[in-house]
Amino acid sequence: MQRVNNATHDFPYLSEAAVYLDSACQSLRPQPVLDALNEYYTTFNSCGERVKYAWGVKTDARVNETRQLVLRYLKLKPRDHFVSFTLNTTYGLNLILSQLRTDRIKKVMTSDAEHNSPFLATMTFAAKNNLPREVMTRRDDGSIELGDYDFDGALVVVGTVSNVDGRRLGNIDELIKTVHRGGGLVVLDAAQGMTFGKELLEKTSADAICFSAHKMYAPSLGVIVARRDLAAQLDTTFIGGGMVDDVTGVDSYILSADSPNHIYTKFEAGLQAWGEIIALGAAIKWLENVKSSAQLDELSQRLYDILRGLPGVKLINDQPTPILAWYHDKLDAHLLAEALSDQGIMTRSGYFCCHYYLDKIKHYPPLVRMSLGLHNRSSDIDAVEKLLGKVFK
Prior knowledge:
This protein has eleven helices and 15 strands.
């Protein structure tokens, strides 16, 4: 049974005049998430994993709860996976690749339509390790024609949902199975996928998933979800407090990650953002309790239809998604974004960290991107339709 979306009520601070259409960059935070963050800073602000007093014990419990919630959200089992916290998706991808052993890797592969995060990380990984790098072609629907490529011994780093137009890697399961049959590894950029395509990631057998909590209604934070057996293929070189059980000499130490119960410290050097981690847990609970696909789909369809009907507008999307990108055949995208901003409508303009695909492959001019979230209301779409109708007519 479809539940009614009441998510918009959880953004009481958002005025009617403010139309925020940049959720693909970072989503707004609902009140329960803000409350969780505020609760930490005002009632039990403390270090995790280092103290014995009551505040710290509570911090540890809530942080561990968030790790469990992430795995539950993805329908993954703790015996097979662990959760580590970082800064963002880009940081997580680079952290994995910078420490990955290359004895089993014959080449690195990504796709032409990737965000700069995997695109540049694979570029530097290949150059550093003197490995060939292959850039695969994405179909218009977001999938990859697997028969066109040899995945033997490949490290494949790709995104699950495009941050430009929301297209999905629909054959992701087949891709992972094909790569694993060839003895390779798959690392996923799930920055958009955790919000707009979680079903693609559920029960995934990918070796690692990197995503940004700030794109899924939580504070600014990065997350790595990795298979436990991936840890054995990493040489830990980014080391600091929180990762070490003991320093045994001037040039020796014992890593906490060597213990199965503390394997998550593999990527957690130094003091962590405890409040933000706890607030991510609140965001996941909120997402699980607020079913909003019906209204979000309806708003996406309506905005898609409006943009398709405007004179001079060239819509990149071939189907409605919460992420819509377009350009006008005569008006500059940056000027359009400024005009929209003057009326309280917040959008993005440019290439959205997808320069190679949009500029060098597709040869598009700078684009306007409108990305919807659970905070959006019908009145937001009304405002866009009214303003663009005036501008283009």
